[in-house]
Structure formats: structure tokens, C-alpha cells
Amino acid sequence: MNTGNMIRFICILLLWVGLCWLLITRAARIDFMVIFTIVASGIIVFVPLYKKYVRKND
Q: If DSSP states are collapsed to H, E and C, what string results for 40-53?
């Protein structure tokens, strides 16, 4: 992974963490749906990025 891709990945990671933080702090209670939303969004965001940038040599 070159420097430009790493910076892009870090920016997306920080944005995702910020949005998760907003979801957790604004939720009335932390229940299964909040946790499921965080996990599902992480999978939707980071699996394609991993496949594109990290596992490029396959």
C-alpha cells in the first residue's frame, strides 16, 4: 500500500469512527440494533477496501 492509499484509508477510518461515536453517544440505549449497525457498517466499508488495496497481489 503506498502513501496516498494509506492516507485515504486513514481518513475513511477516522470518518467511520466519528460516525460510530455519534451513533453511540446519541442513542437512547445501547442495544443489539446499535451494535449490529456498527458491525454491519464496518463490514460494508472496510471489506471492499481490504480487497482492493491490501489483497492486491492475488
A: HHHHHHHHHHHHHH
Report the SS3 class of residue 55.
coil
Instruction: Report how far residue 53's alpha carbon sits from residue 13's, in angstroms, rounded to the nearest whole number.
Output: 14
C-alpha cell at 22: 455519534
CB 51 within 8 A of CB 57: no
Name the pTM for this structure. 0.81
Distance, in Å, from the CA atom of 31 to the CA atom of 18, rounded to the nearest integer, reads 19
Beta-carbon neighbour count of residue 37 at 10 Å? 13
Per-residue model confidence as pLDDT tens digits over 8-57: 989 999 999 999 999 999 999 999 999 999 999 999 999 998 888 777 65
